């Protein structure tokens, strides 16, 4: 985690090191507008969480960017459909990687199947509207404009067609990186992540096709706050990865449209942060603020193996609206850095999530649990990542806050009620083992099979009655109680 800064060597050495660490070098020797370009090339564009190859030592060039706008249906969460408007078919849009002095020839193409005109405002552009005034393009058309990259840094781009907020809220944003002369210092792994807030007619997790909700957007009350356009874009087998000892750089952007992000990686410290995606480097940072329409570049070395959870530390967004991602680090334990002791206390929610991630890759998703022991095994993993935070490791709950699942009379009396709780959430007063609870459990956004497995695990643990909950049982309940989810969220 820590970069070794040998301060002892004195002021001169320190100065040298500091300059060396400055990614966007402060040499103002050449006027960027005078940098000559050599030849031309077509820009490599990538979908998140990946980024194109570093520019390295290449000279400034004429860089041709072919960006296609696509309006397309996608999945906001399991069973929740949403019509996204995208730059390049992904949310966030394709990552564009340039260097200072590049002359970008930008081709903005609006796919003929699209319904609306769009344009693009790139914050890396010096010029009216950041390109927006020159790029309004109707479906089935293409607009071309040129700009020169004058300022190194990490910039947001977005659609700026009225209603602007709606175009951004539907996913029309991405990042463009302008590397300094000679490129950024090399690292082992680079990733591209953007946060966005989404506003749907239905509440979080409500199934089916969900239209955009303008009123919620104006009130700045999103149902979803997510990384890379959807719940779970960076979890489970889609987690970003690194090996112990590697350096990781995350190009972190925030499309908004409304919320700012308190970007944090649980269990890591950012060795370096290019604040707001510019020159200024802060070191040893726990949480960095990423403004709406802004960015940050964070770097850290991963010293211990495990699953590190990426969150917006406005923490309800993480645990209740989807702003969670994962970085999985492989390698041998490093006991001197982290002993592996389970921590107790109010932040068990976070520590717990880390401790209980499945160690093998992709087990839960790929294998279908058929027998009860298989269900129990799969369910245990789901419990560790979903229920544990509130109901605790042995299902004991937390007095006055989270009811026990161990020997719970509520649970054992009726599996349908347990299924409903996980499917649709639960609120209002309930009595568990003679004690009253009056709190809110949010719906857990799991598939029928996952719910069947996690409940089978719960029923087969801690002295419960060994009910086997099956996916058809869950499916049956899913059909029944649609109105209830609404009651809980409104
Ligand atoms: Cu648009």
Walk me through what this model shows.
By secondary structure, the protein is an alpha+beta fold. Helix content is 23%, strand content 31%. The chain contains 13 helices and 24 strands. The protein has helices at 11-21, 132-135, 164-169, 214-219, 315-321, 348-355, 363-366, 372-391, 409-413, 415-424, 448-459, 471-480, 482-489, and strands spanning 40-42, 45-46, 62-77, 80-87, 95-99, 103-110, 121-122, 142-148, 153-158, 173-179, 189-198, 208-209, 224-227, 240-243, 247-256, 261-266, 270-274, 281-285, 287-290, 294-301, 306-312, 324-330, 426-432, 435-441. Strands 1, 3, 4, 6, 8 and 12 form a 6-stranded mixed sheet that branches. The protein has a 6-stranded mixed sheet with strand order 13-11-15-20-17-18. A hairpin with a 6-residue loop joins strand 17 and strand 18 (281-285). Helix 8 (372-391) packs across helix 11, helix 10 packs across helix 12 (471-480) and helix 11 (448-459) crosses helix 12 (471-480). It is globular and about 75 Å long. The relative contact order is 0.10. Mean pLDDT is 87; it is low at 1-22, 342-366 and 482-490. The chain binds copper (II) ion (CU). Copper (II) ion binds next to loops.
Strand content: 25-35%
C-alpha geometry: globular
Radius of gyration: 24 Å
Q: Pairing-aware structural class of the strands and helices?
A: alpha+beta
Largest sheet: 6 strands, mixed
